[in-house]
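Severity: low
Component: inverse-folding endpoint
Summary: output formatting inconsistent between runs
Steps to reproduce: submit the following structure tokens with default settings.
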């Protein structure tokens, strides 16, 4: 099997989980015997581009002529079985879908965000969830509010791109929805069920989980949509030391808030931006991982990393988080579904406190300080009870062996067109 993997890498200065996932997926496919032909561009290439290339950048999200030329040559030479698209912006353009179809090559796309509809891709603006562009032919609100890179001109370009390529997106042969929430988003966009497959990402198996540490770990970009303010507000509602230690890792615009909290309270520790070894050490030092998203976070990789290490997760009930922790999965195997786990964790029948929903691998609550504050002691007290189930969920649903087989089955299930260029 021969697959082209197409991806426009985000800038390395802004660490991207999507870049990491694409790299991991290529490695996993190659190890499984798939011949992968990377068709990769990077936004880091932009500063070194020629003047002519830079002059064409404004139209590249709509149509990137150099990328189409290079892709056409690749498809002609190698005749792949499918093209797997991740991020097309700005140097590839959704036009790669049309180029692939012109060569008779079917296209599968993994949907990592909401950019079929939303110019920023995250349905979040000015500190709150925003879906003002949903259902519009042209995303005028995105232009008005400068949603893409805080620029009216670039927002107008992205909104126009989304309008121009509405038909392009609807021609994709198979969509990979990372969670059930993304599947719902695609259906709302008009994609029929038979072209949507739910397949999450995987993370490498770290091996047998270490014994639980103590306290909590928050590891994310330090920005408003990730819930930094929400978490710190909830944490401050408890006396110093009452919940053990809150470790916070990452970087971003709200880093000063985290540093101030660490200076204010000895039970808050700021770890900075971590490398892979640092991530594993931070996870193992903690008992519970927190995903306090204030937006419909698609698939926070930190949750999968937590489950792989046998750590349950406390998250907000937004986006893909309920799916990840198994709080929206009535089809779990007997004895491991949310109802049975909730009963076991609560002591064989005692109900959970109001507003806390128990999943197979953690808890979800409303994205509100009071709700999160109420859930923190519950999660700490019951972490050991959910730790084995968290690891089991990872092995069954998010292990590379499982996810890679799913992906190969998706490729195999797409009927290759016979109209070759």
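Observed output (run 2 of 3):
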């Amino acid at each position: 099997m021969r697959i082209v993997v197409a991806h426009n890498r985000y800038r390395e200065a802004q660490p991207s989980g999507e870049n990491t996932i694409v790299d991991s997926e290529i490695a996993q496919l190659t190890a499984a015997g798939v011949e992968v032909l990377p068709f990769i561009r990077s936004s880091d290439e932009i500063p070194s581009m020629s003047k002519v290339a830079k002059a064409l950048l404004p139209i590249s999200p709509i149509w990137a002529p150099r990328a189409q030329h290079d892709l056409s040559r690749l498809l002609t030479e190698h005749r792949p079985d499918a093209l797997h698209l991740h991020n097309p912006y700005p140097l590839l353009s959704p036009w790669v879908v049309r180029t692939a179809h012109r060569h008779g090559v079917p296209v599968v796309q993994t949907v990592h965000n909401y950019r079929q509809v939303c110019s920023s891709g995250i349905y979040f603006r000015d500190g709150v969830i925003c879906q003002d562009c949903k259902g519009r032919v042209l995303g005028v609100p995105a232009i008005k509010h400068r949603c893409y890179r805080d620029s009216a001109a670039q927002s107008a370009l992205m909104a126009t791109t989304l309008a121009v390529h509405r038909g392009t997106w609807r021609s994709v042969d198979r969509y990979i929805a990372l969670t059930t929430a993304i599947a719902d988003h695609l259906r709302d966009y008009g994609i029929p069920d038979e072209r949507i497959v739910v397949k999450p990402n995987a993370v490498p198996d770290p091996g047998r989980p270490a014994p639980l540490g103590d306290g909590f770990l928050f590891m994310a970009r330090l920005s408003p949509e990730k819930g930094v303010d929400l978490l710190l507000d909830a944490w401050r509602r408890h006396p110093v030391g009452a919940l053990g230690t809150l470790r916070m890792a990452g970087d971003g615009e709200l880093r000063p808030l985290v540093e101030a909290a660490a200076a204010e309270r000895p039970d808050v520790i700021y770890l900075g931006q971590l490398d892979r070894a640092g991530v594993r050490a931070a996870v193992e030092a903690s008992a519970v991982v927190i995903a306090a998203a204030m937006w419909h976070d698609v698939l926070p990789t930190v949750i999968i990393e937590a489950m792989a290490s046998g750590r349950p997760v406390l998250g907000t009930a937004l986006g893909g988080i309920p799916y990840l922790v198994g709080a929206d999965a009535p089809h779990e195997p007997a004895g491991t579904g949310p109802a049975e786990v909730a009963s076991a964790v609560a002591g064989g029948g005692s109900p959970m406190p109001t507003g806390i929903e128990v999943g197979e691998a953690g808890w979800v609550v409303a994205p509100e300080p009071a709700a999160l504050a109420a859930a923190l002691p519950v999660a700490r007290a019951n972490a050991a009870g959910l730790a084995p189930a968290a690891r089991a969920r990872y092995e069954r649903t998010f292990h590379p062996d499982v996810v890679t087989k799913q992906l190969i089955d998706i490729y195999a299930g797409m009927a290759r067109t016979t109209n070759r260029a």
